[in-house]
Amino acid sequence: LAAMLPVLRRCRPRSVPLPVLAAAMGPGPFPGLCPGWSPQAVPVRGRKTRYDPPAKSKANRVKLPPPVDPEELLVVLDRYRQHRLVLSALRAEFRAEVLQRKREERLAVEGSVEELEEHRRLMAWNEEENARQRARREERFRKEEEEQKRRKLEIAEKQARKMEAFLEEKEKEVLQLQEEAKNFITPENLEARIEECLDNPRNYNFAIDKDGRIVKRTVLT
User: Fold this and answer.
1) pTM above the 0.70 mark?
2) Residue 78 near residue 85 (C-beta atoms within 8 A)
């Protein structure tokens, strides 16, 4: 311990002049905290600039847009269109209400009773005209609906008449087939029909002219 005392005395901190301390710490905005600090010495890891070449792993990459389903795109576009129409209608309605309120407030403030009365009269006339046009439109729609119902009824009646004629024709065909079925060859009358054919032979080997008359016939042997 006695041998270490001179060494400890030499390591005792002493007062150092400020210029010497500043020169030892180096330049920087916070001397004493970051010795030897300078903006050029700080390592920075940032993004590439627009002039830097692409990475080797992405040099041949081709950016393709994501696939879009045509049916889904049509549905989305139609919904966006409806959304824009609804928003524009709401904005127009709110804008009209705000303008109407401001106009009434301005007329009330100015004290123009005649203009306010004229405006109310015109608005009442406008409401009456709208109601009249609405009634005419509803009447037109009602007539169009009645005309459409009448056309549908006529088409249904025509289809019913056509179906009835078709069924009658088919019924006649069935009756005709039933009459013709009486002369069909069946296992029961097979022997009798064979005997009838043998007793009454027919010669179908003949020639006819353009008018359908028989001009030549071979003789049965």
Assistant:
1) no
2) no
